[in-house]
Amino acid sequence: MNNKYYSIGVDTSNYTTSIAVVDNGFRVIADERMPLEVSQGERGLRQSNAFFKHIHNLPVLLEKIFQCIDSSLVRCVAVSSRPRPLEGSYMPVFTSGQAISKSIAAAIGTSYFEYSHQEGHIRAGNISSNLSNFVCLHISGGTTEILKVNTIPSGYNIDLLGGTQDISIGQLIDRIGVELGFSFPCGSALDDIASGFKGEETHILKDIFIDRMKMNLSGIETQCLKQIEKGVEPQIIIHELFEKISKALISVIDNVVQAAEINNVLLVGGVSASRYIREYITPRLKNRGICVYFGEPQYASDNAVGIAMMGMDELRKFHK
After folding, report:
1. Which tens digit of pLDDT belongs to each residue from 194-240?
2. What is the 3-state secondary structure (H, E, C) of the chain?
3. pTM of the model
4. What are the chain's domains?
5. pLDDT, tens digit, for every residue of 151-179?
């Protein structure tokens, strides 16, 4: 008798169309993604354009998914229906995933669950570390938030402790990257340059302003743009930008650990995949006695694996 069964996860963010499948052993069976194409020089997509692209991408990914699994073994379809697990949290792009996921669940006669995009990031980042009470920094293209997270049977209790008061870290990196001529999203390309920088240490940028657990990033954006106008070499600007971001993260992590009295810190979201940031902050936080965790790099950017995992968490409550 085959005791295997599956959870399908769907995520439709401003950056990527994602569908994933995990089995009841929490093994990733499929992880299919299609990035939303952005024209050269643009810094993102309008919600209406992103919605249209998701509707185009979802059938393509679903065909791939159902070629590698038996649909009769699917026990749930889970979807990210909103940005955050808060009352009134809403973005039109997520309704594309909702519509498709409800249709799949109805067509194959299986359970349907909704979660938030942020919870999906946390679950995907926490696959290997398996933390239950921790501080989480969600740093991505659209979000920079400092969260206090407690794992509960239905998902997570999340309290917002701080973050940015203007643009996100991901937006900052993308805006500077686009200004330098890189294609959106720019994070991976700029991270490679920052990580490979061999030049002398520079001091062309001031530190990011920190107020306990909050930071302001528009100031350093303005500084970077001025350095670009001056003709400073891009790799110098990029390297110092990543250094300033890393120093700011260390400061806010140190502050939040002291305030929340929680020593475990998990970083999730696309920016957390940065090799430069990981290698810069990990030893420095360790020297301060802070335990910092990162998810697997392939699950840092927008994906549906965490959502599929949360669906399986729900199923496993009744199949122990």
Report:
1. 999 998 888 999 999 999 999 999 999 999 999 999 999 999 999 99
2. CCCCCEEEEEEECCCEEEEEEEECCCCEEEEEEEECCCCCCCCCCCHHHHHHHHHHHHHHHHHHHHHHCCHHHEEEEEEEEECCCCCCCCCCHHHHHHHHHHHHHHHHCCEEEEEEHHHHHHHHHCCCCCCCEEEEEEECCCCEEEEEEEEECCEEEEEEEEEECCCCHHHHHHHHHHHCCCCCCCHHHHHHHHHCCCCCCCCCCCCCEEECCEEECHHHHHHHHHHHHHCCCHHHHHHHHHHHHHHHHHHHHHHHHHHHCCCEEEEECHHHHCHHHHHHHHHHHHHCCCEEEECCHHHCCCCCHHHHHHHHHHHHCCCC
3. 0.93
4. 6-128+300-316 (3.30.420.40), 144-149+159-294 (3.30.420.40)
5. 888 789 999 999 998 999 999 999 999 99
